[in-house]
UniProtKB/TrEMBL annotation:
Keywords: Membrane, Transmembrane, Transmembrane helix
PROSITE patterns: SUN (PS51469)
Major location (coarse): membrane
Pfam families: Sad1_UNC (PF07738)
Superkingdom of this protein's organism: Eukaryota
Name of the protein this chain belongs to: SUN domain-containing protein
UniProt GO MF annotations: protein-membrane adaptor activity
InterPro entries in the cross-refs: SUN1-5, SUN_dom
Residue ranges of domain SUN in the record: 135-327
GO CC aspect terms: meiotic nuclear membrane microtubule tethering complex
Subcellular location, record wording: Membrane
Transmembrane segment boundaries: 23-42, 48-66, 73-92
Lineage: Eukaryota, Fungi, Dikarya, Basidiomycota, Agaricomycotina
Length: 327
């Protein structure tokens, strides 16, 4: 019996050693793969960080030689791309992962193509003369300074490139955005009172003005408080055009000047003043609102003056549409 017992014991020892060796080799292989994976991850992370740092340095150095206007256009384009991508992903998520896809699509459609009064659509000669594509432009000399704009330092530029977008100035859009067909951007100025001057491509007989604002369910309470509340609409007119009974509605153009050196003396002289052709109240909860002008006059320059907002320390103005016909 002893030889059989000894033989069985040796066989069990052999199997046990084989199992230990197999387990050891498997452990070593797993450790090797783990070490390789960690090394590969750290190396990839290092290369990404190095590439981002190098790219940031290059972009920041190149940006330091660009004019402030080109720097703004670059940052604005990046922010627009980021915002558009985020909105697209949001719509895709709501469409395929929730049951509210129809509601979201309706909202986007309403925002992209706001309704226009029927009397305007029925007249082929009346159009939005304040559209950027129709030749309208901002007059900086008679426009309140934009809030939040500053000259960034080198480190600030580098941090901006590293983040991909300048969060501190994400809403520092120029007043030009109010002439674009979009509700995603707004022009913001400090305080509850300010004004923006708009020049048209031609002299037009103005009939109405419309203001727009995003859906209240898609903006914060702070943004709602930044919406304009009381507004005056001024048209640059020759003193000979204004009836003597309306002289109390005139205002010298000098009172709107913010940058004296930029004033165009061929347009702004002693023979013209601003004539208040409308005053109205705006409610941001109602989105697009249409206001007829009390005294339509032919003009190529207007000023939209915000007299008050809904309670914030800064004011945010979205799309402005001015309807008229060429004369």
């Amino acid at each position: 019996m002893k030889p059989l017992t000894l033989k069985a014991t040796r066989k069990e020892d052999t199997i046990e050693r084989r199992d230990r060796n197999t387990l050891l080799w498997r452990s070593l292989v797993l450790m090797w793969f783990a070490v390789c994976s960690i090394y590969s991850f750290l190396w990839t992370l290092f290369k990404a960080a190095g590439g981002a740092l190098l790219g940031g340095l290059i972009v920041a150095l190149v940006g330091s030689y660009l004019s402030p206007r080109l720097q703004y256009l670059l940052l604005h384009s990046l922010a627009q791309i980021l915002l558009s991508t985020t909105q697209f992903l949001y719509v895709v998520q709501r469409t395929f992962l929730t049951n509210a896809s129809t509601d979201i699509i309706d909202k986007v459609s309403d925002m992209a193509a706001p309704s226009v009064p029927t009397e305007i659509l029925s007249s082929p000669t009346i159009f939005d003369v304040a559209q950027l594509m129709n030749g309208a432009s901002i007059i900086p000399a008679l426009t309140t300074p934009t809030a939040g704009l500053s000259t960034p330092s080198f480190l600030h530029k580098l941090h901006t490139v590293w983040q991909g977008v300048d969060i501190s100035q994400i809403e520092s859009n120029p007043p030009l955005v109010i002439l674009e067909d979009t509700l995603t951007d707004c022009w913001r100025f400090q305080g509850r009172r300010g004004h923006v001057a708009i020049s048209f491509a031609d002299t037009d007989l103005l009939q109405s003005v419309s203001l727009n604002f995003p859906d209240q369910r898609l903006v914060t309470a702070d943004r709602l408080r930044q919406a304009p509340r009381e507004l005056f609409f001024w048209a640059l007119a020759s003193l000979e055009q204004v009836n003597t009974s309306y002289k109390h509605l005139l205002k010298p153009w000098q009172e709107f000047v913010t940058v004296e050196d930029l004033v165009d003396r061929s347009r702004f002289n002693s023979s013209v003043e601003f004539f208040r052709v409308a005053s109205f109240a705006y409610d941001p909860l109602n989105g697009l609102q249409h206001f007829p002008l009390h005294h339509p006059v032919p003009t190529s320059t207007i000023v939209l003056e915000i007299m008050d907002n809904w309670g914030d320390e800064s004011t945010c103005l979205h799309g402005v549409q001015v309807y008229g016909r060429s004369v």
